[in-house]
Amino acid sequence: MDLGIAGKWALVCGASKGLGYGCAQALVKEGVNVLIVARGAEALEDAAGQLQTQASAGAQVQALAADITSSAGRAMVFALRKDFDIVVTNAGGPPPGDFRQWDRDTWIKAMDANMLTPIELIKATVDGMAARGFGRIVNITSSAVKAPIDILGLSNGARSGLTGFVAGMARSHIAAKGVTVNNLLPGAFYTDRLKSNFATNAEKSGKSVDEVTDARRKSVPAQRFGTPEEFGQFCAFLCSQQASYFTGQNVLLDGGAYPGTF
Fold first, then answer.
1. What is the pTM of this model?
2. How far is CA 40 from each of CA 46, 66, 78, rounded to the nearest angstrom?
3. Distance (Å, whole) CA 76 – CA 68
């Protein structure tokens, strides 16, 4: 299927690896020009090189090492390129813990990264999208928005705030201007972050990493972990011409792990 987005420009955050990289990969394969952003310069340059070899239809790959969660980092992005047709927001989740131990600064940091940064990126790009008659914004959030996890209170709170904001904003006048805004909620995808979580859990429980990994895998009805590639492909579809009637939604990709009906 031709997604009809070749030649568009996309900003993909946290794209040096994991789910962000998967999204950038799927987009360049569709002929979309991408600006990938991440904090680690070396990993980012490696990712840019790999993406350029996979790009089709002459798509360009640009890379910018910056902290997208900071105002300075965002200024660097928009100094390089002002307008984007597609924006994929993505930032690492805040650490787990006991809410009794979190002070105001801890909460503000979580909200800056996982709520306020996506809102700032949307604010900087959405009116230009509406003026041009096309725009796709995809926020990578978390399955914890649908099924909160007690030790992930920072993530639950910050990402739920973004979800509520998007629910209203996506249904504003921009919906009639060809602009869609949706949230992608990943479950267990086999990324470095998930592997790190397994290692931490293994150390705490006294079990081996393989035991912890296998138990988590078996808890997923699909009996496997998701891959960044398939996550990216789903993201690319949300950015397509074919998805123009789909907006304001929370799409849960978790292999069936969420047990609810709604």
1. 0.95
2. 10, 8, 19
3. 9
